[in-house]
Amino acid sequence: MEVLTQNLYVAKDLLVTELQKYNPIALVATTFFVTYVLTNLRHMQLDDMGIRKRISTWFFTTVKRVPFIRRMIDKQLDEVKVELEKSLQIPDHTTEYFRTIPVKSVGREEVLRLATIYDHLEGPAFLEGRVSGAVFNREDDKDEREMYEEVFGRFAWSNPLWPKLFPGVRIMEAEVVRMCCNMMNGDEETCGTMSTGGSISILLACLAHRNRLLKRGEKYTEMIVPSSVHAAFFKAAETFRIKVRKIPVDPVTFKVDLTKMRAAINSRTCMLVGSAPNFPFGTR
Asked: Which coenzymes or cofactors are required (predicted)?
């Protein structure tokens, strides 16, 4: 121990001797500059983008400014845009467009006529089982469809934002939330809310988890996700500035590597994401 102490004193004396060769103001300025740079690098590493992503973003942004590369990119984007417009506008020749608000209101018959036209524009692909999402019931089941139409008709004028005026809607929402809580092994303190769709549901969940960790004093937040996760998680990460740690999935089973997922957990982890069934492939 004494030898170690003596060596420390010797090292200190050598350091002082060396530093005395420099201007004190230069030493202070250099120390301040180095500390500032290292602190910012640390923040960049911990924030939602990270140093690697910032460098790659800067690099590709710079490269895309090169004239001939910009022209190549614009050409490919124009081709994709044309194909996309063609695929979306296949039935457009069968209808008319309204570009301005009508000066005079139209009658019931005209509204129903237009509704019939729009209804007939939908393709039969989802009835043939050729889509991966969008519709989750059988439209060719007449009884089921009539039941939905009757229920929707009864509550078409309700507004969930006014639970005192529409207690039935509030009860239905509470029942659905409680069903989901029980399905996910929640307790009496578990709560939730209904949203308008899948993406916004994911965004709200990510926001809740991020805020929970921020309230605990953590400045930076991260989520750990399988590489096959729903795209809305990346929307949430960009919107709420959450760093994403992607964990690869098995190329055969498409299951996430739990060992790597566990190793990625740290004090900044605000949520772990699982996907069952797997979003892009439907596997478990």
From this structure: pyridoxal 5'-phosphate
